[in-house]
Amino acid sequence: MTNSSSNSSPGSSSNHAASVATPANWLGQLAFVLILLTGIAYLLQQSLAKTALRRIDPRILTEVQRPGLHGTLATLDEAFAHAWQTQHLEPTPPADDLTIMRRLSLALTGMPPSLEQIRWSESLPDSQRLEQYLAHLLQDPRTHDYLAERLARSWVGAESGPFVVFRRQRFVTWLSDQLQQNRPYDQIVRDMLTARGLWTDHGPVNFFSAQADPDQDNRIDLVRVTGRVSRNFLGMRIDCLQCHDDFTGGTEFGTPSEPREGLQTDFHRLASFFGQIQLAPTGLHDRLNAPTYAVELLGDVEPTRLTAAVPYGQDWVGPPSDNGASAAVAATTADSVTTAPDSAATVDSTTNDTPLRQTFAQWLTHRENRPFARAMVNRVWGLMFGKPLVEPIDNLPLHGPFPPGLEELTDDFIAHDYNLRRLITLIAYSRPFAADSRGSHELTPAHQQHWACFPTSKLRPEQMAGTISQAASLVALDDSTHIVTQLVRFGEELDFLTRYGDLGDQEFEQDGETVSQRLLLLNGEMATQRLRVQDGLPFNSVIQLERLGQSPAQIVELVYLIVLTRRPTPHEVAAIAPVIAEERRAGIEDLLSVLINSSEALWNH
Q: In 10 A of CB 256, how many CB atoms?
C-alpha cells in the first residue's frame, strides 16, 4: 500500500503539473500563431502591392501612349526648337529614364520612386517604360491626393481657416475625387463656383466658406473671393484695382485692337457677381433679391452701386448652351444686359432669375475665354517643373506676347475638353521635360529661361519630407501601406513641415535655405529616426538591406537607387563599399543619411 501510494504520488503530481502548464503552453502557441499570421499578412500585403503595381488601367495606358499625342507633341516641340534656334541655344540631350521617373514622381506624388517601382519599371521594355510608369502614377491615389493638395493651397489657402464654416480637408477630398475621375477642368471649376449647401456635406462649398470673415459674422469677404478667382482662374493679378485705377500698365483689358488699362470699377464689377452669396447655418445659398453691390470708390464720399460686369469678352455673357458653355449675349433679354459707362457688359441682379455667380461661371469657362485655359496650363507646367512658363504664375498678359509652348498647350487643352490627364502627359513627353539638366557644353541662365535644359529647383518642404519617408522603405508608400506606417509617417511629416516652414499658398517661391532648416535635415527627429534601426519602424530599409545578403557594392547601388534614383559611379562604389563591408548596418545608416542631405537629393534636376 505504501509503495503503491508512493508510486502513485509522483504520477499525480506530474499530471497536476501538466494540467497547470497547459494554459501557458496554449498562450505561447497562440502568440506564435499571431506572430506567424502577422508575418504572413505583411508578406501578402507586399505581394499584393507588387501585383497592384502591374495592374495598369488599360484606358489610362491608351491615353498616355505617344502615337495619339504625336500631332500636338510635334507642334509643341517645334515651337521650342524654333525659340532655341532664334536665341542661338544648344539644348541639352535627353535625360535617362530614371531621372525622368524621379521628376514625374516628385511632381505627381511629392516623393521619389521606390526601389520596388524602379525594379518593376526596369523589367519593362525600354520603349514602354516611361509610358507605363506615367500611367501607373496617373492612376495612383497618391497623385490625386497630392495634386489636389497643391491646387487647394492656391484655391483656398493652406490654413485651417474659419473652422465653424470651413472644412479644408473636405474640399481637398472632393477635389482629389474629381482628379481621380479625370473630370474636365471646366466642369470642376463650374461646380465649385456654383456650389450650394453645407460645407460639411458638399466639398466645393468650402471654396467660398474659406473666405468667410469670422470678425464679420462669417460673411463672405468678396474682395478675397474676387482676388482668388482672378488669380487662379484668369491668371490675372487685379488686386490693386480694388483701391484705385491702374495707370502703370500692370493690368490689361479690352480687346487686342482696343486694349485698355484696368479700372477700379473692373474689380468691383467682378466682385458683384458674388454679392448674392449668403452663408447661413443651413449652408451656402444665393439671395436673388440681394441689394446691388455697392462700394466707395476712390475720391468718393458715398458708396456707388455697381452691377456685375466682365472686363472683356462681353459677348460670352449669357445662359449656358447645350454643351455647357455660355451662349452669345444676344440670347439674353434686353433687360438683363446693358452697357456700362466703361463699355463692360453688365448683368442686373434685379431682373435676372439666374444667380449671378452661375452667369459668371459660364462666362469664365466659355471655350473662347482663353485666359481660363491658359492659366491652368501655366499652373500645371509649374507643378511639373517647379517653375511656370510665365512668372509670376498668376499674372499672365491678356493679349500676349506668350512664350513658346503656352498657346500650343492651351489650344490642345481646349480642343480636348480641358482634359487634365492629357495635359500632364503632353508636358511629361515634351522636349523640355525630357531634357537633361546638365550638358557637355556651357549652360547659361538663358538655357533655363528658354527651357533648353531642365531647370533645377529646390524641393518643396513636403517633397523633402516625402524623400526621407520613401528612403526608409523599399516599397512604395501608398494606400496599401500598413495603417500604422501611414499614421507614423503622417505625424512625422506634419512635425517636419511645421519645423521646416510651410510655403503656404506661395506655391512657387524659391527662398534660400536657412541654417535651422539645414540643421533640421541633418539632426531632426524624422531624418535621424526614420533611417536608423534603433528608432526606425519595423521592416525599414536599413533592416531589409542588411538582411538581403548582397555584397557591399550591391548595397551601395541599392542605397543610391533608393535615395537618388540613380546608380553610383564606379568611383563612388570604390570609396563607399569598404565602409559597408567593415560594419554593415552602421555603414548603411550613414550612407542613407549622407545621401539624404546631399544637394542632389534636395533638388529637382
A: 10
